[in-house]
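ok trying this again, last paste got cut off
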Amino acid sequence: MRVLVTGASGFIGSHVAASLGEHGHRVVASGRDWSRLAATSAGAAAIPADLVTDDLSVLVKGCEAIVHCAAMASPWGPRDAFWRQNVVATERLLAAADASGSVRRFVHISSPSIYFRWRDQIDVAEEFVPPSRWITDYAETKWVAETRVVAHRGLGPVILRPRAVFGPRDTAIVPRLVAIARRGWFPLPAGGRAWTDVTYVDNVVDSVRLALKAPRDVEGAAFNITNGEPVQVHDLLSRLFGAIGVRTRYVRIPRFVARCGATAVEGLARARRAAAEPRVTSYGIGLLGYSQTLTIAAARQRLGYTPRISLDEGLHRYATWWRTT
């Protein structure tokens, strides 16, 4: 089928576009960064576009499906920017898809950040009630975007919530961790005993292909996507840093102390009206200090999803890529 992939100049989107092309789909790859789009979209029809301001009819023309990967993903930034990039952009894309008359499946890449609470959570399922107070504007706007997508039932919407995606060309998770580790020491809230889930990018791509061909009874449903291998934070970091050759000293810190420190750092950044993300954020401390694992039972049963690349294999592949960049 002819498939539009938004955010194809980014991490997940570039992998999705490449894989769909390799599996015989006719891909329209869209993104704001033309140089990166051209470099990662070989074999696809590459069309640079800003989903917030540009005419989107040319993107969706003749497309039978859309995989919406584009988003502003960060624990830090101005609220209006998150709203434009994650909500307004999604609304405009949905409107263009409706007007095209050809789109029959809309796969939306969302985020399990919506589940975050200041407490340990094990085997979190997809059922969700929004909190009274969101931890980040990113999490809130990703949830609002989900509600917009699900409302367009005529587009056959499917929501995927991949957890902590890593792999070649990752610009979010591992680089942030390495930046902290290279100071010579790494703070471990709760001693690194919290349990977490991660997802190798090829497994996310597999879930996208399954969602594109899934039966109509999945329309409107959301699915957690992970490697299905919960791991403690200390173990994960040790394996990651060992694989890529980064040495650091772990410092165990009580969760309360870590939260207070992050809050102070964020407060100072706001007082200075700093545009750059602080080295430590409350959300980052929360991810490292509180357990959050997801059940992928629904994805297994309804999409036929099985994680193909194990955590160890994913770390090996990532390390191989890391050493060549």
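PB: full thing came through this time. The longest strand covers residues 26-31.
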